[in-house]
């Protein structure tokens, strides 16, 4: 019998277990609701990106069903051959109006939107200036582009300025930040970075994945929140978090989007969104524009839960959004706390290295508009109980 050439992975998995970084997949049964069933257990779900509850909104469900009946279950090809449907173009037009830009291109995921765009726009002759906590998809896009990568400490404007000032004036530069940082929950300093981009002639890019549907008018993102329209050259958004469906998009000038139609590899080599997904995304935009109560409830719940955690003495870091980390230090502690909470009916997944620094392991909690006050109070009570049992709080 041939020796298993992948046997070395057993040692890697053993190492993950020793460090408290090995996590089993939790299996969702039924809808991804704010109070859901995972692994046969009913829990308050604090580990979903379904910020507004749109993943189960009746209008989105109906739109998806109608699209399947009318158009079938797939598009049959990539966008650049025969896979572009009129509804794809309608979604891009609607998103462009939503983001106050000339044009938008939709990708199969937010990860593909980030990685595909950076890799398409830059070459090995160029340079990326990036916040150290930017999303992995940005980092991968930078690597694929083969551009030089210069990293500045999180939100350190002086360091970013120093990097830009030392680069050759004629060199093409991309300055990039998350709008909302996915593990910290804090906002990127978009206005200050826009000013730096303007001073040094850099391309300005914002990844607004966790801001879409959360910040700005009707959830249009941090560029609107900070009133930086016209100052950000490339905006990336997602359709799979607050929008509740699947995919990502890039918003910007007509020239940028036409270029990405021809050079962004995920666009060129992946089959386009099926009709049900596209129709549900269109319905989600309708909801965002006509049912403001969902964003209002999201922020009411966020304020209640965040203040409750802080009153108990938990370290919630720099959070300014519905993403509220509960920072406990070591990965093993975070894993124990997550498991103990799950047994008591609260799902808050632990996050460790390499997603976050080794000494900054945490439980990442995300509040939804559809949590009841009773859900959140119960979760706070369980956080208090488990936190004291493990010595995380007094």
Describe this structure in words.
- The chain is α/β, with parallel strands linked by helices and 394 residues long.
- It has two domains: 19-55 and 292-389, Alpha-Beta Complex (Aspartate Aminotransferase, domain 1), CATH 3.90.1150; 75-273, Aspartate Aminotransferase, domain 2 (3-Layer(aba) Sandwich).
- It has helices spanning 8-18, 58-71, 86-99, 110-121, 136-145, 157-166, 190-200, 222-225, 254-263, 265-269, 275-290, 293-312, 331-343, 373-389, and strands spanning 28-29, 35-38, 41-45, 103-107, 127-131, 148-152, 173-178, 203-207, 234-238, 248-252, 323-329, 346-347, 350-351, 361-366.
- Strands 4-10-9-8-7-5-6 form a seven-stranded mixed sheet, sandwiched between helices.
- Strand 7 (173-178), helix 7 and strand 8 (203-207) form a beta-alpha-beta unit.
- Helix 3 (86-99) runs parallel beside helix 11, helix 4 (110-121) runs parallel beside helix 5 and helix 6 runs parallel beside helix 7 (190-200).
Q: Features of this protein?
A:
394 residues; alpha/beta; Aspartate Aminotransferase, domain 1; Aspartate Aminotransferase, domain 2; four-stranded mixed sheet; 14 helices; 42% helix; globular
The biggest beta sheet reads: 7 strands, mixed
* Overall number of structural domains: 2
Question: What do we call the CATH topology of the largest domain?
Answer: Aspartate Aminotransferase, domain 2
CATH H-level superfamily title of the largest domain: Type I PLP-dependent aspartate aminotransferase-like (Major domain)
Physical arrangement of strands within the biggest beta sheet: 4-10-9-8-7-5-6
Distance between the termini: 57 Å
Round the mean pLDDT to the nearest integer and report it.
Answer: 95
SS element count, helices: 14
Instruction: Please report the total strand number as a whole number.
Output: 14
> Pairing-aware structural class of the strands and helices?
alpha/beta
State the order of secondary-structure elements, H for helix, E for strand.
Answer: HEEEHHEHEHEHEHEHEEHHHHEHEEEH
